[in-house]
Amino acid sequence: MVSASKEKGIRFHFPRATTAAIRTAVLNAFGNHLEARRVELQESASRLQPSGSDIDTEWWSSMKQVARGLEEKGEPLRSMGTIVYDS
């Protein structure tokens, strides 16, 4: 499952049994998809956020660093955020 919010960006929610290899493959495929559509997405994003804002780039960079750090330690990536439902 995928969710998106302004605060936390795009998040992938994998079942607990999902292996690191599958998570990595999904994230890489999504990154490749975004790269292929970079110009279109940048034009669209420029209409939505202030000029000079690197919030999205910083979030993705941070996400990659966290995932790599966990993998180097041999720990599985369990989540990249928490979904909170307000009632």
TrEMBL record:
Lineage top rank: taxon: Bacteria
Protein name: Uncharacterized protein
Organism expressing this protein natively: Piscinibacter terrae
